[in-house]
């Protein structure tokens, strides 16, 4: 139960609702327990008439009618309060579920990229959905049924003992057996349903991948083998479902059997006690039969609740495991630190924790505000890593990066990231309209500003060519943009943000050279007072930069302007000549 202590803060937050729930439950149960007593009374009245203790039939009738009215009233009140009981406890559990999901999501967002590399997306999603749902079962139904059971036990057993102590003992003896059996059954059901869930998610992943990669499947004519794999997987899934159905099918028969056994005990022992005179009224036996049936479900829930608590505990352990992880990159500066954009790399080296690859080795360079720097180099030479370090997606292993003379760690992290417009290598667009995708970095932008940014990214004409224009929805629900269109929408997003620092990570690779030229000219105009980084494999993209650095294996092997570099022997000149001849061909 230690892990579940994490939820105490939420119980405290909703304490008033929970206390009200408690009172409501007690009222609901007290009214429910009046009913058997009234039924017992009614039987006694009839018994007295049969035994000629009462001779006036009108008296019997009025007694019975009064009892019927009281029973109806008690049932109505009990039903109303049972409804309110669910409304309080279950509603609180939904609130806590909502709060916990938010807490986990917010924490995920704070965690560094390394965390996302170490953990699978499926696992992250499971903890925020499945695990939180299991925890909700503890804060909602488990607590509600426990309060219900305890109240009912105290009221009912107390009353039963007061009228027939020996009969009570015999009646309740089978109940713990019911409780333990239901517990064992719940554990077995849980085990099997976990396996069913696993197979279900395997099946979902397989189906999702097959549909995402349907063009590859069709192109390679792999429909039949894919179908065979699907049938195998769904066959296994069906077997696991049947296993589960078998144990689930035992639940109600087991309950009915044990209730039946308790009823027989009441009739047998109660009957004997009535014959030998220990019990005076037949009504007591009737009352006890109703009480036993009333107690059955709460007793069964003891077993069920224990297994819910166990599952919630296991889930909360998994949730706490992530919640206890500290973000590697944190904001330690509270005051605002606006940025102009003079960036200085001073002997920076960086090694990725997970792969142990040293991506950057003793990198030093400087870019002033208003300047553009081009970064050229072979694949894997460390170009993207430089951009990631500027946005503090990772912290340097040694050396220092300074912006406006201030070390990155001494800058307010929010201000730093607000000051950067980043266009990644693989443009990522959300399943939303093109308009909203562009506005992602600047939600308050006007339509005209959005169009202006799209024009500068040379994608406006493409967008208005779609029948729904800027309202065109992208992704699974909508159209798929070409690689070059995606890159340009992503560039428009960064331009609209209008930050002092722009980072373009090889984001013109899917754009033809003419359009590239046009975009670069536009960028040149809008980045007059910005610091711009342009990473590329193409000389044409970087050639107009004020300064170009050439990376190889994490080291700067050349730097200078385009003109300086093409007049010096080396990688850049070779690349330039090669790409020039390709263009001529
Ligand atoms: N997230 C990461 N985790 C671990 N290693 C990484 C990660 N990203 C890059 N690397 C490694 O660091 C090195 C530099 O990668 P980087 O992405 O900076 O190169 P690049 O020059 O941008 O390459 P490309 O032109 O192909 O994009 C590579 O060897 C790469 O395998």
Automatic annotation (TrEMBL):
The chain crosses the membrane at residues 20-39, 64-84, 142-161, 250-270, 282-305. It comes from the Bacteria. Residues 19-311 form the ABC transmembrane type-1 domain. SMART domains: AAA (SM00382). Gene3D superfamilies: ABC transporter type 1, transmembrane domain, P-loop containing nucleotide triphosphate hydrolases. It is a multi-pass membrane protein. It is found in: Cell membrane. Residues 343-578 form the ABC transporter domain. Its main location: membrane. InterPro entries: AAA+_ATPase, ABC1_TM_dom, ABC1_TM_sf, ABC_transporter-like_ATP-bd, ABC_transporter-like_CS, P-loop_NTPase, Type_1_exporter. One of its GO terms (cellular component) is plasma membrane. Keywords: ATP-binding, Cell membrane, Membrane, Nucleotide-binding, Transmembrane, Transmembrane helix, Transport. GO terms for molecular function: ABC-type oligopeptide transporter activity; ATP binding; ATP hydrolysis activity. This is ABC transporter. The lineage of its organism: Bacteria, Pseudomonadati, Bacteroidota, Flavobacteriia, Flavobacteriales.
């Amino acid at each position: 139960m230690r892990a579940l202590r994490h939820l105490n803060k939420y119980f405290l937050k909703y304490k008033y609702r929970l206390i009200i729930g408690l009172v409501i439950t007690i009222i609901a149960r007290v009214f429910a327990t009046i009913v058997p007593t009234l039924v017992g009374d009614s039987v006694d009245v009839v018994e007295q008439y049969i035994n000629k203790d009462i001779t006036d039939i009108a008296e019997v009738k009025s007694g019975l009618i009064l009892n019927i009215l009281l029973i109806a009233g008690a049932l109505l009140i009990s039903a109303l309060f049972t409804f309110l009981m669910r409304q309080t406890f279950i509603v609180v559990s939904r609130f806590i579920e909502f709060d916990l999901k938010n807490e986990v999501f917010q924490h995920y967002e704070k965690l560094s990229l390394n965390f996302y590399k170490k953990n699978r997306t499926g696992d992250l999603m499971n903890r925020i959905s499945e695990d939180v749902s299991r925890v909700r079962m503890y804060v909602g139904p488990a607590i509600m049924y426990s309060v219900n059971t305890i109240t009912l036990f105290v009221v009912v057993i107390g009353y039963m003992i007061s009228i027939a102590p020996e009969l009570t003992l015999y009646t309740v003896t089978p109940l713990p057996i019911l409780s333990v059996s239901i517990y064992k059954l719940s554990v077995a059901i849980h085990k099997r349903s976990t396996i069913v869930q696993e197979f279900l998610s395997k099946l979902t992943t397989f189906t999702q991948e097959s549909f995402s990669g349907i063009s590859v499947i069709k192109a390679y004519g792999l429909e039949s083998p894919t179908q065979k794999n699907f049938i195998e997987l769904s066959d296994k899934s069906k077997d696991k479902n049947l296993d589960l159905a078998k144990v689930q099918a035992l639940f109600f028969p087991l309950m009915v059997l044990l209730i039946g056994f308790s009823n027989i005990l009441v009739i047998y022992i109660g009957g004997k006690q009535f014959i030998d005179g220990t019990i005076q009224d037949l009504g007591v036996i009737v009352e006890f039969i109703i009480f036993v049936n009333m107690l059955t479900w709460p007793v069964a829930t003891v077993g069920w609740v224990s297994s819910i608590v166990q599952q919630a505990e296991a889930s909360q352990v998994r949730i706490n495991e992530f919640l206890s992880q500290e973000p590697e990159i944190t904001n330690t500066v509270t005051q605002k630190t606006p940025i102009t954009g003079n960036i200085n790399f001073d002997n920076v080296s960086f090694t990725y924790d997970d792969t142990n690859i040293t991506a950057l080795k003793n990198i030093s360079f400087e870019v002033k505000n208003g300047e553009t720097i081009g970064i050229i180099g072979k694949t894997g030479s460390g170009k993207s890593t430089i951009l990631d370090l500027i946005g503090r997606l990772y912290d340097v292993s040694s050396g220092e990066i300074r912006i406006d003379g201030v070390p990155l760690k001494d800058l307010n992290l929010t201000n730093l990231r607000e000051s950067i417009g980043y266009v990644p290598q693989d443009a990522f667009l959300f399943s939303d309209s093109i308009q909203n995708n562009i506005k992602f970095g600047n939600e308050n932008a006007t339509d005209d500003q959005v169009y202006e940014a799209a024009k500068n990214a040379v994608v406006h004409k493409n967008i208005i060519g779609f029948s729904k224009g800027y309202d065109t929805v992208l992704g699974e629900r909508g159209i798929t943009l070409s690689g070059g269109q995606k890159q340009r929408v992503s560039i428009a997003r960064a331009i609209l943000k209008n930050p002092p620092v722009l980072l373009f990570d090889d984001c013109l690779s899917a754009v033809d050279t003419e359009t590239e030229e046009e975009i670069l000219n536009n960028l040149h105009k809008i980045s007059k007072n910005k610091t711009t980084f342009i990473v590329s494999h193409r000389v044409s993209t970087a050639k107009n930069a004020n300064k170009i650095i050439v990376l190889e294996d994490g080291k700067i092997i050349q730097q200078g302007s385009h003109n300086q570099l093409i007049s010096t022997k080396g990688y850049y000149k070779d690349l330039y000549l090669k790409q020039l001849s390709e263009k001529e061909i």
